[in-house]
Amino acid sequence: MGVTNSNKVINTDRITCDGSLRVTLALTAAPDIISNPTDIALVLDRSGSMTGTPLAEMKLGAKTFIDIIDEATDGNKDGQIGSGSRIGIVSFSNTAEADTQLITSVDALKTAVDSLTANGNTNHADAFTKAIQLFDSSSSNAKVIVIFTDGNTTTGAPPAPVAAAARAQGIIIYCIGLIGSSGLDLNALNNWATDPDASHVAVTPDAGDLELLFEELAANISKPGATDIVIDEVVNSDFVITSISSPSKGSATMLDAHALRWNIAQLGVTSSESATLDFFIRHVGQEPGTKLVNQSITYSDKEGNVVSFPKPTVAVECNIIIHPEKCPDPVALTVKSCQDSILADLGDVYLTSQGRIIQMDVTIKNVCPGKRVALAAILTEVDQDGMEYQRGMKTITIPAHSFPVCRDVLVKCIKFVVPDDLDEIGKAMCTPREFKARFLANNIDTDYRCCESSITF
After folding, report:
1. Could you tell me the residue range of the domain that residue 18 belongs to?
2. Is 187 found in the same domain as 143?
3. Is this model's pTM higher than 0.70 or not?
């Protein structure tokens, strides 16, 4: 069957500016369907939320799947599933029904797919039950369920125990989810599918991608497993790879801070087999935003399997930075070619400070959205006896932010000018001096409201 599934997932969709996350690569391969015949139950959702374009796209994808299996089993698209393999159609809404048994006629399978109409609720438990009933327990054929659904379970018994019973019988379950108007319970798909989840669950963002997903799954069925696998992963330049876990199959090597290589000698040559690799990356960029995790990922093997991986993104949130005092505007000067010196009148400059300049940064912790903050910076100087003398206080209003959660706010460049001719310290210019800095921060805004009461006489 070649590579039947490939996936790439991350363990979180949101990190801080210097945050880390886990990336999981997954791959599943199975033997050649010609020498290892397979019975496939194609389970199709025809509930009311599939009305219109989703149902039309699902039908097109399912018929593409049937055509590719037709050609893969005997080398010809002759209208017959060959080499002992069979396909059956099960559809479901309020209840499920077997639209065909396990058969080899491509025309009969396509007719069953074309006859589907959308209405009713979504009964996944009955869908799995009817799919299991298609298979002959005495047959030596491999058994596969490919279930397509776009919504949550809305009627019938809990489906998880039924799916678990199917897996216990050796049936391989693939779940294909389409995010539609009724939503999608990804945890449920992961629970129903054969482990590992990353290799047996795929989610398409819209119906237009469904035909390609069916085509990739079916096209790889004709391959005899996969050998000499090489996967090269390069992460986005805003991330670095911090560590690589030992893969379940093969070996993985870090090529540099941004790249790794995963080698697998063979996968799925004698039976369906999965492999996973976990590695960890850290964000090192300075800008926030939604960022692609990988810059590129390439796959190759001896059999020429066509494999593509998803491109996950993560939202990066960096601290808010405020500069309460601006630097002076520069004055531009031009030195002409071969000119050794220039005389330039740069205008007036006003005396704004004298003595030493102390510049401080401070981070205000857990500033909640919609709240302005009053920040006070207090500077004192300490003499040789430990006495403190005031050297100034600055107050700054920190504007409110609109992030959905409380954030840390970094305030930069708080400047104090300390003269060198202070009588109470009595130190000469350029001698060491000791200072202490204190910061106070309070919310200015509040959402407190007086009790709203009424009095009735």
Report:
1. 1-32+224-318
2. yes
3. no
